[in-house]
């Protein structure tokens, strides 16, 4: 699954969890946390594998529950300590939804689920080196699972808009503040 699909699924899962707990629509900080969390496995594995050659594949350490569960526990404990339990919950939900969505294709094609317990279970290392993003995109274009990501993203965007676009103002404020700081620094 691509970043857009992971973000969409994580947001949808988080929205459903809020409804299940009879809470109001999501607030800004948890939305940002669920979106960041949804990218964590790839942000760990892809650079360490593709560029540094430290991991056998782009789906190993960051996709392994043997790594993610302790990380999730640590994130939840930290969030509780700083009084941001919902932010911690959102981050962990986004992070754990990622490898689950990456193994869904095992239902209809031959795919390994070894990444979920790496290094206890094996993963297939790259035969000819790390793939390029262009190669991955070209290989994904005809895949129904890839196309489903856009449907999920559309549903997530409609819900997010209906929830008042939580997180957008916080991001805009930070971007504008950084631009202002850069301009002020360049004037000095």
Structure description:
By secondary structure, this protein is an all-alpha fold. It has one domain. It has eight helices and no strands. Helix 1 crosses helix 5, helix 1 crosses helix 7 and helix 4 packs antiparallel against helix 5. The longest helix is centred in the C-terminal third of the chain and has 20 residues. The termini are far apart. The model has no long low-confidence stretch (mean pLDDT 90).
Q: Brief overview, please?
A:
The protein is mainly alpha-helical and 188 residues long.
Topology of this protein?
Elements: H1 3-20, H2 28-37, H3 40-51, H4 65-81, H5 85-103, H6 133-140, H7 144-162, H8 168-187
Helix pairs in contact: 1-2, 1-5, 1-7, 2-5, 4-5
Sheet/helix structural class: mainly alpha
- How many helices? The count is 8
- What separation lies between the terminal Cα atoms? 46 Å
Number of domains: 1
The number of E-state strands comes to: 0
Poorly predicted regions are none
**Radius of gyration based on Cα positions:** 18 Å
Q: What is the mean pLDDT? A: 90
Order of helices and strands: HHHHHHHH
Reported for the largest beta sheet, the result is: none
Strand content: under 5%
Principal-axes geometry comes out as: globular
Helicity level: 55-70%
GO molecular function: hydrolase activity
Transmembrane segments: 61-80, 87-108, 145-162
Keywords: Hydrolase, Membrane, Transmembrane, Transmembrane helix
Pfam family, one: YdjM
